Automatic annotation (TrEMBL):
Pfam families: TetR_C_11, TetR_N. This is TetR/AcrR family transcriptional regulator. The keyword Glycoprotein does not apply. Residues 1-55 form the HTH tetR-type domain. Keywords: DNA-binding, Transcription, Transcription regulation. Residues 18-37 bind DNA.
Length: 184
């Protein structure tokens, strides 16, 4: 059911990924789906998380700035080509309108995404590539804020030039002078 839902996320807009569509695609009844997930939101959320967690894995190269760039490029791929933009937008709207779902969204997906970025940045701090006093929580907010602003507000592309500019902005804001000179 998760794989069928993930496939539908790739092909359809968020509102079109219905329990009926998942039942047809997976060959199970709606009651079977509801035995495993209490709502459409929960099913889509789990399928989206499963799919994008696999697509955004970044190996540790020893260079936090390059790992950040790679992570953001993988995220951009998910949003542009893997059907995630409509899903993320829909999940965020659902989280705004449903307090219970908002807790699930913030406590799992949002926390996981922040942790993925934090791991990259902390490794960079340990290697001396990112300033020890840098506020990593605010850096993560700024990075995701820029991505979500483009996704939800401006509609501008989340593409390679944007990722390069965002990574360069982060580089100037949180990295050490040594790391900046190595990145050029």
């Amino acid at each position: 059911m998760l794989l069928a839902t993930a496939d539908l996320i790739d092909r359809l807009s968020y509102p079109s990924v219905t329990i009926d569509a998942v039942a047809r695609a997976s060959g199970v009844s709606k009651s079977t789906i509801y035995r495993h997930w209490p709502s459409r939101q929960a099913l889509i959320f789990e399928a989206y998380t499963y799919k994008t967690n696999k697509l955004t894995i970044v190996p540790d190269t020893g260079n936090a700035i390059e790992d950040l760039r790679t992570y953001l490029m993988k995220l951009a791929y998910c949003l542009n080509f893997a059907g995630a933009a409509s899903t993320v937008s829909g999940l965020i709207v659902d989280a705004i309108n449903d307090d219970e779902f908002a807790q699930l969204y913030r406590g799992t997906l949002l926390q996981e995404r922040r942790k993925s970025l934090l791991v990259i940045l902390v490794k960079g701090q340990r290697r001396g590539q990112i300033r020890k006093e840098a506020d990593l929580g605010t850096a993560i907010d700024a990075i995701y804020g820029a991505v979500h602003h483009r996704l939800l507000v401006s509609g501008q592309r989340i593409d390679e030039p944007f990722v390069a500019a965002l990574t360069d902005l982060a580089l100037r804001g949180i990295s050490t002078a040594h790391a900046q000179s190595r990145a050029k």
